[in-house]
Structure formats: structure tokens, C-alpha cells
Amino acid sequence: EEEEEEEEEADEGEFVPPPPGDQPEDCPATLQERVKSSKWNIRAYGLQELAYNLYTSRQQGKAIAGSEWEETSSLIQGGLADINVNVQERSLEAARVFLETAPPEACQQFSSASAEQVVKKGFASPKTSAKTQQLVLKMIEADCSSSVIPVLVTCMTWKHAKTAAACVETALKALELFGAEVINARNCLLPACVEIFDSNVPQVRSLALPLAVALVQHLGPGIRTSFGRLRGVQAKELDAALANVPAGRPRPRRATRSTKGKLASSSKPAGKRGDLKGHTKQRQELEEAMEDGEEEEEEVEVEVDLLTKLGKSWATQVLKVAKWQEKLEFLEKIPALCQPSGAGSFRLVPGDFSEVVKSLRVLTGDSMVLVVSAAVKGLGLLGSGLKEEFAGSCKMLCPLMLDKLKDKNRGVVEAVHVTLDQWLQRCFTFDDVVDPISNALSKGSTPKVRMETLKWIGRGLRANKSNKRSKAGGIGLPSSLCEAVVGCMNDGVLEVRDAAFEATTALMGLAGSSLVLNLAEELQVDPKRRKKLMSMGSG
Q: What residue spans carry the Basic residues bias annotation (predicted)?
């Protein structure tokens, strides 16, 4: 245990760059010229010298002007893009020292400009892979996770096996070190994790399980439903792994720079003796906040004034920005404000959400799947928080959501399922959306839409929460939809027939086997399936 603690402390410690040795021959006079030299050994020497100068300046408390930070950042970025791996290695070291030394604004600008270069180029070479991971973690520690985490997520699906696997490994380590809130695990990592279970890269696919287990540990057992559409073997492996997970949520092992600052300020003794108790309590609260929300799901519902916190211009600004990363940053404000601890119950203060809904609806058609997923989840959170007050919007958006089930991206489909579940639990019953569901189950829709819609219906019937309020005799599904579900067991596509069978068995648990079996006979369902239904009903 002592060895583990020492490793953690070493992992959190500052990086001490090695001092530069003897200058190579024909070295230019200035540092800038050395870093930009045509000879790789001089460029590498210059970057090593730059890193050491930054370190000694910090140790000696020397002030550095803002323009110097910009120039230093530019020199390091040039090294990160270098074609020589030795120069890249020295630039990764210099970047790490830069993030430990530079002010927050300079760190943000550097990370935003270099994150993609660092991840894509650094992980591609075995010589620089380890130092690239250290630099990515340092970016997160410098409160720049919004710049680097989306890049990690995007590169998890790359065909370059080493880069994709390194991105998953780094994301997992970041989750374990910093916790779910800091890296926005719910909105970034969770959809990506679901998708990499089907990765064509064996190294990536093998990392999907440990990442999924870590996500459930940090975000709570409620997110297990996000993995509801895994293959049978994968689902069994995940459940077996989760069965051995200790109770409680892990505590982050490393704090970000901003959190360290708050902890340090709360540690300072006040002028008055009586204030010491308040400081101690404040520090304890900050340390508990780092534990990333260990409260159980049954916590008190928190009221959130989302419209005020987003601001009046949010709905227009999110559509004006050009880069997908900027759109994602705007969208991530919704879960961050609704669920600041990454989990928990909340209720939104009612208001005019029409402009917000319009913008989210537009973004569900974006070309970047991460933006689409975030927009879909945002609509789900509005339903969770506004409940019946959002019912009208949910009914209007239900056809759009059901149509999005045909999306080729699994992360988008997962996001739609999460949103539909939230709406069904909080906003409406199946009775309220008969027409959209009937259209989704009709032969005019795609087989994938029919299959995914049937999965949602089956899951909703099994949950039997808001559905038990149904007007259709308490069975949870109107008679017309009962007929549509059972009728899908005659579909020409095997996957649709299987999904219909699962939904029909769920219907039997609520409506009774005799009603469902009679309906199956009327619709001339395949005798083998009817026989299987009968055996399940009698069992």
C-alpha cells in the first residue's frame, strides 16, 4: 500500500526536465534560432534548453510577460509538429513544463491549439507514446480537458490501432485520476465506450470492458442501461465484472490546478480564531466534492434555473459557432448545469425553452456525431427536468427521435434511447405518442427503426414506471400498439422479429398471456413463435 501511495505522489509531482548538455557544433546564437534550426539535433537541444529555462524560471519565481508565453507556445507547437521523433520527444517535455508554469489563459490557448497534434502524432510512435499520455494528463490537470478529451474520443475510432488503443488507455487513466466530472465522462466517454465494443481493432475492443466498468463505478449503476444493446457475451462479461466491483464511487487521486487553488486558499488560517472552524469546514467540502458525488441515486431533487444560467444568447450562439468543438462546448453546459456532480435528480425552473429546443433540434442534424449525441441528450435532460411541462415538446419531437434510430453511429442511437427513456419516465406515456410509434413500426420505416423502436417499447414495458398510468386498461400499451408489436413478429427481417418477440414477452408480463396469445393467433404469427410464447406464459 505504501508503494502504491508513493507511485501516486510521483504521478502528481512536477516534471523536472534534464539540464541541456554541451551545445552541438554550429549552434546559432539565440534560443529561437536553435529551436528553428535546419538540423534536428540542434532543434532538440534548443527545446531541451527551453524546457529547462522554463523550469528554472518557475523555481526562481521570475515573472514572464504575456508576449513571451505566446512566443514560447509557438516554439513548442513547432516542435510537436516536427518530423523527427527526437525533436518531438523534447517538445513533449517542454510542453509539460509549459503547462506547469504558464498562467491559465496561456495553458488554455496552448492546449486548444496543440491537442489534436499531440494526440494524433504523439501516440503514433512507440518512442513518444508514454510522454504523450503524460502531457494529455497534464492538460487535464491544467483545466484544459475540454480541449483534449474530444480529440481522444474522436481518435478512439481511428484505424491506426496503436493510436486508437492509446487514446482509450489514456481516457481510462484520466477517469481514474481525475474523476467523471472533470473530464465530462457522461457526455464524452460514455457514448464512445458503447461504440468501441464493436471496434474492428482488437486492442481497442479489449479495452472497452475495463472502461465500461470504470464508467459505471464513477457515474453510478444507473448508466448500466446505456450498455443495454451489447451482444450476449459482452453483456455477461460486463455484468460479471461489475459484480466484483466494491461498493461506493472511487475518489479522484489527482486534483486539477483550479481545485488545488481552492484547497490551498481554504487551508489558510483566518485572522480571527473563531473563523478557523469555517475554513476547516470549507476545505472538507472541497475535498468531498473531489469524490465526484458518492451520494446514492435517492438524493434530494435540486432545483436548477437553467435558462438564467445559460443566458439569453445561448440559443443563437450555439448555432453561430463554426467548429464542432465549440458547438460541443456550448452543449456540454446543459448537463454541467443540470447535473454538476455527474448524477442526481433535478428539476428545472419552468420558463420559455422554445428557443433552446429549436437550437437543439437543429443540432440533431449536425454532421459531427458527437454534436448530434450531445444535442439529443440535451433534449432528454430538458424532459427529465421539466417533466409534464415538457410533454408538448416531447410529443412534437418524438417522430424526430424515432427516425434518428436509423443513424449508422451507435453513439447517436444510444443517445436517442437514453432520451426516449427519460421522456417515457417523466413526460408522457405510450398512449400519448401512438401515431409516431405506429409509423415507426410500419413497413414504410426502415428495419433498423422498427427494431430499435421495439427495443425501446420492450424496455419501457419492463420498467413499468410511468407506463402503468396508461389509459389502455392498465396494460401499459394501447390496443393498436399491442397489435403493431405482436404483428412485427411476422416481419421479413430476422432482427425485427427477434425484437418484436422480446417486446411481446414484456407485454405478456403486464397484459397477461391469454390476451397476447389470442392476438398472436389472430395475426397468424409463426406457430413456432406462438408455441414459444405459450411455454413462457405457462411457465
A: 250-260
